[in-house]
Amino acid sequence: MASKLTLSNRAGWTFVLPGFALISAFIVLPFFFAIGLSSTNQRLLSPNPTQFVGLENYQQLLGLAVVTLEPERDDAGEMLRNEAGEIQYPRLREITRSEAYPQYRGMREWFRWQSGENVMIVIASDVVFMKALVNTFLFVLVVAPVQGSLALMLALLINHKVRGINLFRTIYFMPVVVSIVVVSLLWRFIYDGQNGLLNSILQALTFGLFQPVDWLGNPSTALPAVMAMSIWQAVGFHMVIWLAGLQTISPTLYEAAAIEGASRWQTFRYVTWPGLRNTAVLVLVVITMQGFALFAQIDVMTNGGPLDSTQTLVFQAVERGYGKQDISGGSTISVILFAIVLAISLIQRWLTRER
Amino acid sequence: MAEVSLKGVKKSFGRVEIIKGVDIHINDGEFVVFVGPSGCGKSTLLRMIAGLEDITEGTLEIGGRVVNQLQPKQRGVAMVFQSYAIFPHMTVRENIAFGLTIARASKQEKQQKVAEAARILQMEHLLDRRPSQLSGGQRQRVAIGRAITRKPAVFLFDEPLSNLDAALRMDMRMEIGRLRRQLGTTMIYVTHDQVEAMTLADRIVVLKDGQVMQIGAPMELYHEPANRFVAGFLGAPSMNFLNVDVLDLDGEAAMVGNQSLEPIRVATRGRPFRKGGKAILGVRPQYLRAVQSGKGLLHGIVAHAERLGSETVVDLSLRDNSELIAAFDEDKVFEPGDALELTFDTALAHLFPDEGELQTH
């Protein structure tokens, strides 16, 4: 039946308007703002007029170079060694501050490795950003497969018609309902280096042999700790998506597989997994995007530390834009992140396309 | 190839008993059809044979081996489902070879057996298609193909044609009949369609409320139904049942009649009746013949007539207001309101005890 709503264009637009306006104001507009601001030197509060700087912000963030340091030699050409017998090299500063190399000006060491008697040093114009970039990728690379497969396992476990199964579904889903900020606060206590729950449990399990670790205060454990907590927090959400996918698979297919003599693994391989294809794409893309957006956990638990070992892109964007009032810098990071996530999503879609 | 034997088989879901003690013996190479109205437990019984449902009580033997506790794959059965249950992401070839893939058969063996199945089912040209590119009948043929590649001892069909349209159903019915002659394997076939049952079966098992009503060859069931249920279930249009009074009884026959039926003698076939009591007379619509006024056994008025070309089905209202269906095997015109007298061969009529009557005595 044709009503006024379906006939009248004006009524339709009126209904669309509020949502459209909100999305425009808070998503579309800021998106274009970010792109625009990333090519200026805009600051949050500044007496100076804004200037167009082109791609300078991007150069500032992405600038990378490799320099080779040769050993210092004496007049005879012999390598100089210190008391411990280590080869002596010129200081990096002598290059990055030298008038002879204006292109390296202001860059700092990111990491170095030994190559024969020389030392290769990767220098970056923004080392913190580079660390954030690497940490973010590491986070996604670990969290996406682990969280996705754990969620699938849970979904397979709870996809049974057993008494009380809803209790388990609820328990697994509970962390999703709790605010990530609250969860992060609680996990800060769990990870506490003095008398945190995790240390206590590990000590109890090893009869006191385990040496307490300051999980969030140690550069080598901080990021894994954040990963573990993040996986735990959102695994229930993806479990529910998997569960929905599992329930679309016709039970007769399982019966047919049983009659044909398929083992549990074969049933999974030939019936369940192919039936979950579309769900898998969805879960993968969602986890990846959530992973790249890692912020709240870092903000509450580590503030990017210790020693920048938990810096992430979004945390850096916020930190710069508001902490350091460098709006253009923050915008630039946002745009780079957007490009990365878009590229990865497209690649994932292409890899998982229908063949 | 194997015999299948059910002894005192029962099935309960919680407190509800679905199968209430079934004894059936199926011979090697026999084609047996389980038939009954929906909810009679025929599919459950088949699924119990397949191993998809537990057997609560009784024993099930396949090939002389008790298989109650065995997994489906160990029972040597193959099953064809109503919803086809073919894997949407596999090609026809992969679907047919599924059982072989599971058994890790060699590529060569797979190729050979798929080719053989495709030849039997005449679907060589479809092997590289996906299920979404097939019609319903073709999909069901893929499912049958998957079943025959494994050379099972027993084939189980769970309403395989119910999802197909009428024309296709007839084709597939004939195909299954042909397949059956070609393979000679024991087959158990579940359907609610009596035409499938009558045309395919060596023996039919009629089920109602989880109990066997009668087992026998199709014509045996048609001509000598053991009870009113079987009599009414087989045959289309279904048998007419008239409430009659038992006027007289002698050794093998009873004299029955009512307001609209002249007294006739009908064989009791050993069933219990009581003189002066009630009984139910069953007459198939096809056995009724229209006769001139004054010579009929039944008197009625035409309420409605359907002309099918080769047959004319007439709905009559009898003198006692009961309804009667008559099917004449010729094209004839009847007008509603016409008075009609009918006769029939009383040897082809069946007399059943009135169930209400039985309960009160």
UniProtKB/TrEMBL annotation, chain A:
In what residue span(s) does the ABC transmembrane type-1 domain sit?
133-348
Query: Its membrane topology, per UniProt?
Result: Multi-pass membrane protein
Q: Where in the cell is it found?
A: Cell membrane
InterPro entries in alphabetical order:
ABC_transporter_permease, MetI-like, MetI-like_sf
Q: Which GO BP terms sit in this record?
A: transmembrane transport
> Is Magnesium included in the keywords of this UniProt record?
no
The UniProt keyword set, sorted, is: Cell membrane, Membrane, Transmembrane, Transmembrane helix, Transport
GO CC, sorted alphabetically, is: plasma membrane
Checking PROSITE patterns in the record gives:
ABC_TM1
Family, as annotated: Belongs to the binding-protein-dependent transport system permease family.
Q: What is this protein called?
A: ABC transmembrane type-1 domain-containing protein
UniProtKB/TrEMBL annotation, chain B:
Is the Nucleotide-binding keyword given for this protein?
A: yes
Similarity remark:
Belongs to the ABC transporter superfamily.
> Which superkingdom does the taxonomy of this entry point to?
Bacteria
Q: Which organism is it from?
A: Mesorhizobium prunaredense
Signal sequence extent = none
ABC transporter domain span: 4-234
Name-wise, this protein is Fused maltose transport subunit, ATP-binding component of ABC superfamily regulatory protein
Instruction: Tell me, in one coarse class, where this protein mainly resides.
Output: membrane
Give the transmembrane region(s): none
Residue ranges the record marks as coiled coil: none
